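User: My collaborator sent over this chain with a note saying "see what the structure looks like." That's all I know about it. Can you take a look?
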Amino acid sequence: MTLKSSRRRKCKTCREWFHPVRPIQPTCLATECMTAYAIKFNDKAREKKLAKLRREKVAAKRRNRQRKRDFDRQDLKWQHEQTQKVFNKMRRLEELLWFQARGLEPECISCGKAQMDWCCGHFKTRGSQPGLRYDRNNTFLQCNNYCNKNLSGNIEGNKTTRGYKQGLRERFGQTEGEWIIDYCETNTAPVKWEWQQLEAMRKEFAAKTKALEAQLHIC
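Assistant: Without extra context I'll predict from the sequence alone. Here is the result:
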């Protein structure tokens, strides 16, 4: 025989006081109260399970992203792509500041035009001489679409433009211009890049870029 407890409880559904007949009894014995509580309990259990699954899914995505980051960090192609972007931006800013410091309007090293879509133009391409891809002596301000892309750097010039080589001579003088050209054409030794080296270089370039942006803003 089940005896009622002398200690009253409030029904979880109707909030009325009742005397439980079992040690763990959340509702009174009214059918509608027990049914409503069971539905609510099952909904909470389902929501709890779904919340757990969502947390596990988020944690799995986080682990996958970390694994991808670890893989990318050691992948030289990925490292070069990221480092090149930062270096190119840094060189554009350095070049713009060079012209600004001398009170000159920035111009393309190859065609001499101003007010262009500026990029970091490589004298020797990354494919031909990869050891110079992050070399300041091999990179100068250039218009992107016309000279860099459409004319493959416009090194020798054409009927309407002077070309990269002549642009170096005109900008820096015959002696220094020829030195830069000779430097780029003779430095053909291969470079064995390490991902740690590229990562360190990228941090250095990023810090320099930030300083240049602040300097250009002040000027």
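A starting point for your reply to your collaborator: The radius of gyration is 35 Å.
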